[in-house]
C-alpha cells in the first residue's frame, strides 16, 4: 500500500488529506484537515501546522505528495498565487518539505476530480446529452473564479487544459450592469473588472452592496438574501453567463461541472431560473447550449481527490 498526501490550497482554506492506493489507480481517502491559508506567513508554515493538529502522516513520509494551488504553475514547481500572500517554490526554498511531489493548478485538480469518485453525487442542474468523446468544462466560484477543461487525448484518456480564465474581463451587457462595473472599479480601485471580482465570494458581497447599500460578507449575504431577492437573481444570472461563455469557449459538448464553495454552500445560485436563462441565452448557439448538460459538484473535497489523482500517476 502506498500513501499520498494531497493538498488543495485556496485563498481562504488550505485542505490536506491522506489517500492510500494499492495500484496507483484506486484511491481511498482517509484523515483530513482544513487550515486557514491566511493564518500562515509561508507555505512551509502552513505545512508545519499539520503536525500541530496531530495529522497522522508526516509530509516527508508520504510516498507522493500532490499539491493543488490557486494560481498559475510555472515549470511544474513554482506558483505565485494572486490571492495568497505567499508563493510556493518546490524547486528551491520549499524543496525539502517533501520527498516527492507534484504541483498543479487548483482547477486542474477540480477537473481531474471528475475522473474520480468525488463526482459520484454530483446533481443535475440542467439536462442535456453529454458526448463522451467531447470536452468537459469545469468552472467554479470560491474566493476567486476557477476554470479548466478536460480534453480527450485521442487515446481514450483525457488531459487537463488549465486556465487563468477567472482573470479575463467580465462580460457586462446592459446599462445597469455597466453601472455595477463602475461601482466595482470605484470600490476596488482596479481599472479592469475581471471574473474573479464578480463570480466569487467577494463578488457576492459587491453585488449585494451595489443593490442594497449593505456591506456584508459573502456568508452574511447568503444568510439574509432570499431566493427571490435581487442579489440572488443577479448572482445567479452572472454565474450562468460565466458558465455559458466558458462552455462556448471550450465547446464542452461533454457537459459542464460547476464546483467551488460558493455554489456548494448556496446551490440556489445555480438552481435559480436566472442561471438557466443566462446559460442558454445565445443569439447564435441557443440550440447547442440547450443540449449541454450542467451538473453541480458540491463535494468540497474534490480538489483533494484531484491532487491525489495527479500524485497517483507517479506511483503506477
From TrEMBL:
CDD domains with a match to the protein in the record: ASKHA_NBD_GLK (cd24008)
EC number: 2.7.1.2
Keywords for the protein's UniProt record, in alphabetical order: Kinase, Transferase
One GO term of the biological process aspect: glycolytic process
UniProt GO MF annotations: ATP binding; D-glucose binding; glucokinase activity
InterPro entries to which the protein is assigned, alphabetical: ATPase_NBD (IPR043129), Glucokinase (IPR003836)
Pfam families (alphabetical): Glucokinase
Recorded family membership: Belongs to the bacterial glucokinase family.
Name of this protein: Glucokinase
